[in-house]
Write a structure and sequence with these properties.
The chain is α+β, with helices and mostly antiparallel strands and 189 residues long. The protein has helices spanning 3-18, 27-34, 51-60, 69-78, 103-110, 128-142, 145-158, 164-174, 177-186, and strands spanning 22-26, 42-48, 65-66, 81-86, 91-97, 112-115, 122-125. It is 54% helix and 19% strand.
């Protein structure tokens, strides 16, 4: 992970922490932390924030960021995706506003703190299990090979350390059981 990506992520997380907003880093950055490294030009976060908190995020953004208040507020209202762009680094932070119930609420409740690198800052990440499930969810409609490879990278690195009982319980609820079996088998677990 590049220093620029860590810097952009750090500035974003400082704002979320200052506003007491629950978040978890997901996507390729999280799969790289839990699994095999992969390249990413953006950071994906899920978060729970009201329209008022979304407006507060926009007001706290340093001048180097592009993130319109109305876009953030609308995403919070619709529980959808918007992004922030760090004009200095050219990197993007995708913010997915999620509901306060259901599977993604569980992901936020289960997130773990981890460093990026041996001396990097500490951030909150989706667990390895939830990264796998989220990758399979995103892949469900698109059949994206990238999502599969990211999930497989986590399985290869974590293997038997994964909570397979949790994985299969959630996979059944999310309609991902067949994909999880195939992923486990291809990962050699």
């Amino acid at each position: 992970m590049t220093n620029a990506l860590i810097e952009t992520l750090g500035l974003t997380v400082e704002i979320l922490d200052a506003e007491n907003i629950r978040y978890a880093i997901t996507g390729s950055v999280a799969s790289s932390v839990h699994g095999e490294p992969c390249v990413s030009q953006d950071v994906d976060l899920i978060l729970q924030a009201s329209e008022e908190k979304a407006a507060a995020i926009a007001r706290r953004l340093p001048a180097r960021f592009y993130g319109e208040e109305d876009m953030l507020v609308d995403a919070a209202r619709r529980l959808s995706l918007t992004n922030l762009v760090d004009n200095r680094t050219g990197l993007k932070v995708d913010l997915s506003f999620v509901p306060t119930d259901g599977y993604l609420d569980e992901v936020l409740g289960r997130c773990v703190e981890s460093r990026i690198g041996s001396a990097g800052p500490v951030f909150r990440f989706a667990t390895a299990e939830d990264v796998i499930l989220m990758k399979l969810l995103w892949r469900k409609d698109t059949r994206s090979q990238k999502q599969w490879e990211n999930a497989l990278g986590v399985v290869r690195v974590q293997g038997a350390r994964l909570d397979w009982k949790y994985l299969f319980e959630q996979a059944r609820k999310l309609g991902l059981e067949e994909d999880l079996v195939a992923l486990r088998d291809e990962g050699g677990v």
